[in-house]
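Risk register update: the risk of archive-format incompatibility is retired. Evidence:
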Amino acid sequence: MAGKVISYDELQRMTHEQRRAHFADSVMPDPEHDEDPRVRALFERARGRAQQRLAEREKARSDGE
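Archived output:
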């Protein structure tokens, strides 16, 4: 059950422990707020590359490409 989209009725039929496990499995880590500074640095570099690509695409569109 955990980790997949389920209906409200299915949630209601779960035990407290099953709902807690389902919730815990659905939580995704956020690299921007990770405790490890190396993970945050990787995230920041990836965000920088993504922003650069978006800026290049916008510039290409404004140049008529």
